[in-house]
Amino acid sequence: MPTVTDETTTVRTSDGVALVVEDVGQGDPIVLLHGFPDDRTMWDGVVPLLVAGGHRVIRYDQRSAGASDAPAGVGRYAADRIVADVLEVLDARGVTEPVTLVGHDWGAMISWMAAIAHPARFRRHVALSVGHPSSYRSAGLEQQRKGLYVLLFQVRGLPERLLLASDLRLARRFLRTHPRFEHVRAHVTRPGRLTAGIDWYRANLGALLTRRWGRCRVPTLGVFSTGDDYLTERQLVGSARYVDGEFAYVRLPGPGHWFPVEEPERTAELVLGWAAR
């Protein structure tokens, strides 16, 4: 029988970080990874639909986010460490079968890296907004222009001061299309939380630009929304070159970067369809 769960618990990682994990439903498991500056609640509209579709759904606040710990130190947010969090959460929840892995924003970058490094743990992969690391870095001048903020984030302390100044005026402009800005505001104004979130960028820019990323052997669905202010369609479409086996692509005309929040029904429909193949 499929595992039946309905609980929120804490998983402590091998490096001592407490991650708050929600595990609901029954059936083939789906794991949801959020990005910056979100937490697991960004999936609130999606989870009930996946559960109703016959799945066990695991989502958690990634390190630095929500109710999970935000350890100090850039090295605590290196991608390999965060990929290890995914596996440790699965192990702690007793999930031994391959799962469908879904990521958005930084969660999608981590989902690519996890699928590349540990293909046996994942039967299906859904990348929302963000493409394969090699495709992202080779996506051209328009992607570089849209990603200039990543360079600013490398300066220790400066982006935090700018984003928090004048009642978060710059943060409001930067996150102008975020449908849950007040929720984000409450999070990033907690002591140390904004620095911890930006440390993901500081810890991984060098590896993202220089590391030789492997090919993805997990069947992958890429989904891009045309209203995305931070990413280009090219970096996701181009991911097909780095996937061995099945790759599918869906273009959503209209919604912005946070389309899983704006259009949870459509997002759940795509995930359920891909998981069922």
Automatic annotation (TrEMBL):
- Gene Ontology MF: a single term: hydrolase activity
Q: Which organism is it from?
A: Patulibacter brassicae
Q: Matching InterPro entries, A to Z? A: AB_hydrolase_1, AB_hydrolase_fold, Epox_hydrolase-like
Sorted UniProt keywords: Hydrolase
Q: Quote the SUPFAM superfamilies the UniProt record gives.
A: alpha/beta-Hydrolases (SSF53474)
Is the keyword Hydrolase in the record? yes
One Pfam family here: Abhydrolase_1
Task: Identify the residues that the record assigns to the AB hydrolase-1 domain, covering every copy.
Answer: 29-185
Specify the protein name: Alpha/beta fold hydrolase
Query: Does the record carry Cell membrane as a key word?
Result: no
